[in-house]
Amino acid sequence: MSTVEVSDRDFALTVPVLVIGAGAAGLVAALSAHEAGAEVLVLERDSLPRGSTALSAGLVPAAGTRWQREAGIVDAPAGFAADIMAKAHDEPDPALVATVTGAVGPALEWLGEAHGLPFSVVDNFRYPGHSAYRMHGLPSRSGEELIDRLRQAAEAAGIDMICDAHVTTLVAAPDGRVRGVVAGRPDGTAEEIGCETLILACNGYGGNRALVARHIPELADALYFGHPGNQGDALLWGEALGAAVRDLSGHQGHGSVAHPAGILLTWATVMEGGFQVNASGERFSNEATGYSEQAARVLEQQDGVAWTIFDARIADIAGQFEDYRNAVAAGAVVEGDTVAALAEAAHLPPDALERTAAAVDAAKRGERADTFGRDFAGVAPLAAPFRAVRVTGALFHTQGGLAVDGDAHVTRADGTLLPNLYAAGGAACGVSGRSAAGYLSGNGLLTAVALGRLAGLAAARQARA
Ligand SMILES: Cc1cc2nc3c(=O)[nH]c(=O)nc-3n(C[C@H](O)[C@H](O)[C@H](O)COP(=O)(O)OP(=O)(O)OC[C@H]3O[C@@H](n4cnc5c(N)ncnc54)[C@H](O)[C@@H]3O)c2cc1C
After folding, report:
1. What tens digit of pLDDT does each residue of 354-376 get?
2. 184 CA to middle of ligand 1, Å?
3. Count of beta carbons in the 10 Å neighbourhood of residue 26
4. How far apart are CA 401 and CA 300, in angstroms?
5. Cα–Cα distance measured from residue 76 to residue 425, given in angstroms and rounded to the nearest whole number
6. Could you give the percent of the chain with pLDDT greater than 90?
7. Interior/surface letters 281-302, b for 16+ CB within 10 angstroms, e for the rest
8. Residue 268 has pLDDT above 90, yes or no
9. How far apart are the first and last CA of the chain?
10. Mutation probe of ligand 1 site: the residue of 266, 397, 432 with most atoms within 8 A of C-beta
11. What was the pLDDT predicted at 321?
12. Which atom of ligand 1 sits closest to the CA of residue 225?
């Protein structure tokens, strides 16, 4: 239970910069504050830092980086900002969009130069909505590598971190200045630590069913695919302190999680020419608008499930992803030499699935317009043998949160600053607007890295002043 205790009490130990949460946002903030000369302490509820960062592909979008220049890619923060605003229908705060798109590239270059993180730009797959190749990842392209390397960098820098420290209470003076925190330990004891500045880096509220039901009712019963420890503590503390909150309905969903296996089925299965049907063997949407908004559409179908229908050619493409291979091993991918046989194997009505597949083929051949307006131009018809995977819609992470200024300093509704509170990553309001459709690939780690960097530098400056 996260609470705010209003009190002027003092603490036996006070640190200049205290960070709650050791995901990408918290570790980047800690490294930045340390570099700026402040003593930092990180509190993390798990015994090993992982967070949603470890569950991600670890791909961070940035424009105008040295890795892009080396690959001959022409890109700039302004173009990146325009892509974000277009995807989110101009809903995000343009000042925040300009801030994070300007900050993320230098932050990645600093992580590379100062801490040896060997980023490279993904230049063989253009993520939907990005006008340039700008996803940057580590060699394994995994979030596990990102979180491990950030943790190792923090350890190498000598940054203090207490794991198994679940912060439950913020202690704040009547004017909103945070004086310290109380953290529960596994043995039932409590750690009380004072702070001059506090950075909330404990992500959003995806793991809190009640908050999801309140703010994102269409995903109230959805599988949550992010880190379960992200319970919305930053949001609850911030609200109690009078922080402004924004876009709480914003989120990233995914309409293609194999069910019940619980394994992500790559969206390439759809983008390469597959389609989704419900239990009646009928399509229900233009799947190509985006995987994020597709989560709610799948959940609207009978039993909240759909089947993604594709073929062996697409299965080959999907096979480069470990998740797909795991789905095959788990028996989640069924096969059929004909559409009717596939329908039998997937327990779908064969006649209806044959009709649906024929209609999609006709749209691909340009013989008719697609019922749902999907542009199938240039997409090959599916060819035997066919594949089907039963999928459901999932919530990946929330995108709304505490409003911050250009230093990741948390603001009140009237625009004034809470005296010493900062927020980064999923704890802060992101740049995805108010709906699932506003999420541009990479928006999650964008604000983790960019706001983490800005929060760490600003908190260190304030603590030193
Ligand atoms: C399956 C999946 C794939 C994704 N892929 C991508 C991608 O490729 N690119 C991208 O940009 N984004 C992606 N995302 C989103 C991305 O993972 C997040 O936006 C990002 O990791 C958020 O970083 P963070 O540091 O804010 O949170 P986290 O990494 O979740 O870290 C928060 C930390 O705070 C800790 N914590 C929480 N509450 C407390 C408390 N009270 N006391 C102490 N500690 C606490 C948690 O244990 C956790 O370690 C993906 C998400 C998922 C789920």
Report:
1. 999 999 999 999 999 999 999 99
2. 21
3. 34
4. 26
5. 22
6. 92
7. bbbbbbbbebbbbbbbbbbebe
8. no
9. 33
10. 397
11. 80
12. 53
DSSP summary character for residue 404: B
Burial environment of residue 188 by CB neighbours within 10 A (0 to 12, 13 to 18, 19 or more): exposed
Q: Identify the residue whose C-alpha is closest to ligand 1 atom 5.
A: 56
Mode of pairing for the β-strands spanning 120-121 and 305-311: unpaired
pLDDT one-digit tens code per residue, 34-70: 999 999 999 999 999 999 999 998 999 999 999 999 9
Residues with CB under 6 A from ligand 1: 20-26, 43-46, 49-53, 55-57, 59, 166-167, 201-203, 225-227, 229-230, 233, 396-397, 425-426, 442, 444-446, 448
> Quick check: helix, strand or coil at residue 397?
strand
Nearest CA to 197 among 18, 356, 458? Answer: 18
DSSP string, 120-180: EE--S---TT-SS--EEE-TT--HHHHHHHHHHHHHHTT-EEESS-EEEEEEE-TTS-EEE
Question: Residues 6, 177, 420, 100: is their CA dihedral positive or negative?
Answer: positive
Q: pLDDT grade, residue 32 (50/70/90)?
A: very high
The reported pLDDT for the residue numbered 41 is 98
Give the Å distance between the CA of 75 and the centre of ligand 1: 27
Q: What integer is the mean pLDDT of 378-390?
A: 96
Stretch 97-115: mean pLDDT: 98
Q: Which residues pair with 183 in a beta bridge?
A: 167, 191
Which residue's CA is minimally distant from atom 16 of ligand 1?
Answer: 444
**Ligand 1 atom at minimum distance from 135 CA:** 9
* Ranges of H-type helices in 201-272: 209-215, 233-240, 268-271
Beta-bridge mates of residue 428 = 402
Residue 311: left if φ>0, alpha if ψ -120 to 50, beta else—which one?
beta
